[in-house]
Amino acid sequence: MRGPQVAARRWAVITVTCLVLLTFAALLPGRVEAGFTGSTPASAAFGSAYWIPVSSVSWAGDNQSGSAGETGIVGDSVAGRSANAVDDPGTFSALATGYHHSCAIRSSTVSGQPPGTLVCWGRNSGGQLGRGSTFTLQATPREITPSGTTWKALTGGSETTCALQSSPTDGSIWCWGWGGLGQLGNGGSPLQQTVPARIVSTGGVPGTWQSLSGDGDRNCAIAQDGGLWCWGRNVDGEVGDGTTASRSTPTRIESGATFSSVASGQLHTCAVAAGGTVQGAAVQPGQAYCWGKNDYLQLGTGSTAASQTTMAPVLAAGSTGVRNWASLASGSRSTCGITAATGDATKPGGQLWCWGQLGDGGANTSAPQQVGTSTGWSAIDAGGDGTTTFCGIEGGALSCRGGNVQGLAGDGTILYRTAWGAVGNSTGTTWSQVSVARSHSCALSTAGTVFCWGSAEFGQPGTGLAWFRNTLRDTNTGAGRWSSLDSEENHACALRGLDLFCWGKNTTGQLGQGDYVSHGTPQQVSGSWEEVSVGSDHTCAIATTGAAWCWGRNLSGASLGTANAGTQNTPGAVVVTGVTGDRWLSLDTGQNATCGIRSDHSLWCWGAQSSGVLGNGTPNVSLNRPTQVSGGGNDWMSVQVSSNEHACATKRNDTALYCWGNNANGQAGTGTSGGNVPTPRAITRPAAVTGAWKSYAVGHDHSCGVDAAGTLWCWGRNNDRQFGTPANTADSATPVIAAAPASGTTWTSVTAGGNSTCATRSDGGLWCWGHNWRGKLGLGSDNATIATPTQTSATTPTATHLSRVSIWLLR
Known about the structure:
The protein is an all-beta fold and 811 residues long.
């Protein structure tokens, strides 16, 4: 979707998807700016578009499909699909992964910080990075607060981290992050800790510990005397105290036994006993016990019960009855164990056995099943969320199998792996530890280097890559001066002179490359072009001949307007029935529909519709070629199409703004809400509106306009403060005065995308408010609603494009 302008002598409407703010000087009197500011020469020959060329292109927001064009981010999941070293100059002795973050303990001195310093990176929504705040993410390792402390063991959970300190309080456990289910072990208050807080030794809780393990929202630890203690979420009995009540302080489990290791899974727990008794029965050293959730038979006890609130012994493994385990690993749907050497040749150490969901495509199993015949396994971990992923170290080599969403298994694909295979970039290196999280994995080499792979959503690889940014960042658009840019959720396109480039997701051919390969950097589209407009999964553009072309997904056989039913991965001509010498002045593409103004200033639309966005009076009938909107006319000047099936347009020498289509929240501005408005209709105009609309914008469910006096008006949905009025969150079916500018200033233009709004001000700068998903407004915060205008850019951009998931600035 884009916003238009008319250049003198051309009467051309230049649009930029999702309301790009671009400007021309010497425009026709009485023009309407759809969010553009600036100037152009007084004339431009027909057939040669004119934009102000700019070199700096910046973005903020979601980059899941590579649509930001940032260096190194390529592909539909934008994952670091092979192992790469984290961006830290130190070496490491231990690591742990949480759901979307990682932490590691350095073994070397870095910038004066001693060995034992703990660093974290990735998501920080709960304060789990331990740096005193809940800033969105950290894409490279950084030291936790306070500096100078040293650590010797650690574990990660959903939004928490816990670690075993070596100095200044040796053997103490400290936790930080979100603790709404008691997982901080602090008695439930406070619910959140953004810096490490010690688990206090009261009520019999030990003061010193030897090991710990956490996952999800529950932690367990083994005290110096071998006692096992757990705390946090207990809905499925994963604490193991015989109840399903969550525990906010450490609770002793089976006080008659001692334990050598514990492994916390997402919703179940397993431990290796060292001695004593469990439920009155003598313990065989090395025996494994499990408890908690059992929906995939991950307890390995032979039971098919949904859960177990107390310890139950894992069945003996194999025909020889293996019961001695050196270590265990619990994941979301499975458990694995490596056997301990006992001196019995029939029960060798170093074997790998798993139970539950095995990641081999087969049925779940309630008893341990051996993985291969190797006796060289030294480490194993299981993770994933929704599918089970296993990664392990055998003979020093690193390999994975099972779920591979977002590249979690590290083989360069996102395909499920039923057989073990090497992690990309891992061969030739000897490994000592591996940790599998929800959508990323990390491993530690014997040389002390941490490597990570998988999702880059929150910077988990630790290399600086991230799916989204909440502050403006230059994009990798290459050398040259860009003159126009448009984007939607998953891909973007821009013009450099008359050359058109597109990048991002390409699963429906929307990049126009003749294939379905996604690209994280700009790819040239064959031809010579004047204008481009991007929809959700398709693209349309005007060639220098004035002809319109579209490509990508062809929903209902109509989105492309080519009268052909199939998806198209190269440009296909848009055909107007009965018209020869077809010429278009502008196009604006919404989610699955496009509207455009032809050289005679008539307005035409085509595509898939269910709410009347095509404006032809038949709101549920899709059109596979351009059809003139009801009411006809040859005086249309600009048009914009939203991402949720409503559109607005202006006419020459007419002060009215016309809207139509989806009106569920009053976004058509006709005075009523609900249903649809099937044909263009002048919005209700309050008496206080001054003169003609000099700028207007359509968001997902709201619309806004700036009148001749510089007052901003909005209508439609206001659930995310799209109007910028914190005292008023009500929807409105008629224009109401929206965000007020600073005293002595006025608004000069407006743009909208999704549930957000941005505007430029008479004293300069760009101001934004509304929904801030993935930091799309570039304000340094994440997933927050911004209630009042907040400055995104101190200088007025040459162009601003706001989509449902990101913001783009041309400067």
